[in-house]
Write a structure and sequence with these properties.
The protein contains two helices and ten strands; from the N terminus they run H-E-E-E-E-E-E-E-E-E-E-H. By secondary structure, the chain is of the alpha+beta class. It has a single domain, classed as Immunoglobulin-like. It has a five-stranded antiparallel beta sheet. Strand 1 and strand 2 form a beta hairpin. InterPro entries: CS_dom (IPR007052), HSP20-like_chaperone (IPR008978), NudC_fam (IPR037898), p23_NUDCD2 (IPR037902).
């Protein structure tokens, strides 16, 4: 469901010196620009449940403790067109209120505007899941969206 939602509504990337990262309710996506012609043999990537490390051609791109836990056995990385590494991490906590404010603890932080946009996006994604007959991909949201937005679970249908 989130892939379709992302295709229609776009992503909110957090730019970094090596590329960018963005998130959905379920996943964190990391895109790393590498020198053209890079081969998979030149990539060393370690994906733990709480730690990550990426080296390309012997140079450390990043290394550290992730903002939150992930399911390491479901993490993947690919080298695309010999110039882009795409890493996909599956979040352990898949609630709309679990909006990562940085990729690593204290590093690659989203600025206030990007963080706000990421949280809005996750809240709309939550609304889309709760109301599959509606299309929230182009919706605007204001008000109480921090922490995943308002809780309507106690309302009668």
């Amino acid at each position: 469901m989130s892939v379709h939602f992302e295709e229609k509504s776009g992503v909110v990337p957090c730019k970094t010196p090596w590329g960018s990262w963005y998130q959905t309710m379920e996943e964190v996506f990391i895109e790393v620009n590498v020198p053209h012609g890079t081969s998979a043999k030149e990539v060393k990537c370690r994906l733990g449940s709480r730690d990550i490390e990426l080296h390309v051609r012997g140079n450390e791109m990043f290394k550290g403790r992730l903002f939150d836990t992930t399911m390491s056995d479901e993490a993947t990385w690919t080298l695309e067109d010999k110039c882009l590494i795409r890493i996909i991490l599956m979040k352990t906590n898949r609630e709309a209120g679990n909006c990562w404010s940085s990729l690593l603890e204290g590093e690659y932080c989203a600025n206030a505007w990007v963080q706000d946009q990421m949280q809005r996006k996750l809240t709309l994604e939550r609304f889309q899941r709760e109301n599959p007959g509606f299309d929230f991909s182009g919706a605007e949201i204001s008000g109480n969206f921090a922490g995943g937005g308002p809780d309507f679970s106690s309302l009668q249908k």
